[in-house]
Amino acid sequence: MKSLTIGQVAERSGVGVEAVRFYEREGLIPKPDRSSSGYRQFDDQTIARLQFIRRAKELGFTLTEIKELLSLRLDATTSCADIKSRAEAKIADFDEKIRTLKQMKRALNKLTSECSGRGSISECSILDALDSKPRK
Predict the structure, then answer these.
(1) 101 near 109, Cβ under 8 Å?
(2) Which CATH number fits domain 1-61: 1.20.1250.20, 1.10.10.10, 1.10.1660.10, 2.40.400.10?
(3) pTM value?
(4) pLDDT at residue 2 above 80?
């Protein structure tokens, strides 16, 4: 087994050195062995795990969800359907966030379209709308 430094692991996996340390602290990667001088000694499996974490983050999974996925991967009772259902739940989360963002955008578009962009700050209709009480 070839031992790799934290810098080598970070470079090969596409994450930063601080991210490697963070993932180690959070239990997303196993604590590596240490050399006699105290340096971390990683193996190639750590690179694969860090790449998994990076790709899962790119797909929007939180670190908690990634930790769960990693645990499920080791559980012999987990099926592909279990993982698919988690991915589908993530998609549903995205859909809800998109709906919320669209509502926010519509509200902000309405405020900006009603604003002339002229006058003093004390006459700003956008600030006035933000100061007004919410409608019931």
Answers:
(1) no
(2) 1.10.1660.10
(3) 0.78
(4) no
